[in-house]
Amino acid sequence: MINRRNFDETGNSFKLIYDSPRDAARTYEYRYVWSFFGGGGVEEAWRAGSASALSASPPYRLHQVVLDADPQALQAAQVQAVTVKLFCTVGGVERMEQLTLNVSRGQASGNIECLLPADGYDYAYEMTWRLAGNRTVSSGRRSSTDALLRLDDLPSD
After folding, report:
1. pLDDT tens track for 116-125
2. Residue from 119, 157, 113 nearest 138 by CA
3. What count of other Cβ atoms lies within 10 Å of the Cβ of residue 96?
4. Does 69 share its domain with 140?
């Protein structure tokens, strides 16, 4: 198991050594089984190999989704705050990351980090705008494959 503590202590240098002169030309089968903190896992397919070293790269990585809005457009729509929830599925387990921007205090942009597929963005999101008079408007749950979410396009309430 590789965690933040032993990763930092070893400087990302982990070795599993199996060496036998008789096996120099031997082929073998291997597979990666990934377990993630917070639950979920991925078992990759078996592969054939003969190399003396294997390179492991997880199927998920930490991606940043940028939240951005035109502050004047939000003020014109009487938005006081915007809450964005990102739903990311990691190894079959859904996780949720959330950020609230207080527009009345000048916050109109931010970032949310979450584990997403290593080869790109694939997540769901929901935006909720808190308006004057304690009213709310929601986008409902939507899916995206983009690194940027615009927050100033409110749906009709």
Report:
1. 888 888 999 9
2. 157
3. 12
4. yes
Whether 51 maps to a domain, the answer reads yes
- The CA dihedral of 23, 24, 26, 28, to the nearest 10 degrees, is 90
End-to-end CA distance of the chain: 49
3-state secondary structure of 5: helix
Rounded Cα–Cα distance for residues 30 and 50 (Å) = 10
Closest by CA position to 71, among listed 109, 21, 38, 15 = 109
Question: CA-CA distance, 20 to 54, in Å (whole number)?
Answer: 17
Residue 145 belongs to some domain of the structure:
yes
> Exposure string (b/e) for 52-65, b if CB count within 10 Å is 16 or more?
eeeeeeeebeebeb
Residues of the domain holding 50: 4-56
Say how many domains are in the chain: 2
- pLDDT tens digits, residue range 84-118? 999 999 888 899 999 999 998 999 999 999 988 88
CA distance 136 to 129: 5
